[in-house]
């Protein structure tokens, strides 16, 4: 018979797979939602749904899930953008397995450079050349999110779209306010119909 720890580890591994390849776990973020709910349940960290009510999480949640917020800002990154928010939650609870852990010096340098680095257009290859291989890579060959992590600190993310263009970087909470758009990311943001009506 499996031990409690083995059962917990199984669901945590499933969550890590779902975060990295969300499309393989169902449309939109439904697979992530169920998988995270299972991890919360088996680790006895709380009720199956109370994790949605945490302040940082609620800020990124709509009736369409986290994807609803991402679509309003970066529609080309809907799936991996949402998965990165789930990864943030998993990282905060020590469930996220990092493929590479940054040193404190590397992490501090990234945090300091994020704003100025996103002020000009970049390619995905530029991110890796500048900061090294990511701790977590979400998505397939086209759209990806590259996450860089240090235990106990919020993840640093770069969101890329087709042609491997970087649309935004972010770190910390709340989700919307943490986004730092590149010029190309700003150009690709959906036009707010209310703003158009005001013109």
Index terms:
alpha+beta, 199 residues
Describe the fold and architecture.
It is a single chain. The chain is an alpha+beta fold. It contains ten helices and five strands; from the N terminus they run αααααααββββαβαα. The chain has helices at 4-20, 30-42, 55-59, 66-73, 78-92, 104-117, 124-131, 175-178, 183-188, 193-198, and strands at 136-139, 144-148, 156-160, 166-171, 180-181. The protein has a five-stranded antiparallel beta sheet, with helices on both faces. Helix 1 runs antiparallel to helix 2, helix 1 packs antiparallel against helix 5 (78-92) and helix 4 (66-73) packs across helix 5. It is globular, with a radius of gyration of 17 Å. The relative contact order is 0.14. The model has no long low-confidence stretch (mean pLDDT 86).
Task: Show the helix and strand layout.
Layout: H1 4-20, H2 30-42, H3 55-59, H4 66-73, H5 78-92, H6 104-117, H7 124-131, E1 136-139, E2 144-148, E3 156-160, E4 166-171, H8 175-178, E5 180-181, H9 183-188, H10 193-198
Helix pairs in contact: 1-2, 1-5, 4-5
Entry summary:
The protein is an alpha+beta fold and 199 residues long. It has helices at residues 4-20, 30-42, 55-59, 66-73, 78-92, 104-117, 124-131, 175-178, 183-188, 193-198; strands at 136-139, 144-148, 156-160, 166-171, 180-181.
Mean pLDDT: 86
Determine Rg (CA atoms, Å).
17 Å
Number of helices: 10
* Main sheet summary: 5 strands, antiparallel
Helix content: 40-55%
Q: Helix/strand/pairing class, anyone?
A: alpha+beta
Our estimate of the beta-strand percent is 5-15%
Taken in chain order, the helices and strands follow as: HHHHHHHEEEEHEHH
């Amino acid at each position: 018979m499996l031990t409690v720890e083995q059962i917990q580890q199984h669901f945590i591994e499933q969550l890590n797979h779902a975060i990295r390849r969300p499309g393989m776990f169902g449309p939109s973020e439904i697979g992530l939602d169920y998988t995270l709910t299972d991890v919360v349940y088996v680790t006895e960290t709380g009720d199956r749904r109370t994790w949605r009510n945490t302040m940082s999480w609620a800020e990124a949640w709509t009736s369409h899930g986290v994807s609803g917020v991402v679509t309003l800002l970066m529609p080309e990154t809907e799936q991996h953008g949402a998965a990165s928010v789930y990864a943030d939650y998993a990282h905060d609870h020590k469930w996220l397995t990092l493929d590479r852990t940054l040193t404190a010096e590397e992490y501090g340098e990234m945090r300091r450079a994020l704003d100025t680095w996103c002020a000009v257009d970049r390619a995905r290859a530029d991110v890796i050349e500048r900061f090294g291989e990511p701790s977590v890579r979400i998505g397939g060959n086209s759209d990806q999110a590259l996450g860089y992590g240090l235990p106990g600190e919020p993840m640093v993310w770069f969101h890329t779209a087709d042609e491997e263009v970087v649309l935004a970087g972010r770190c910390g909470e709340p989700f919307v306010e943490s986004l730092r758009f590149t010029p190309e990311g700003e150009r690709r943001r959906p036009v707010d119909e209310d703003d158009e009506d005001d013109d």
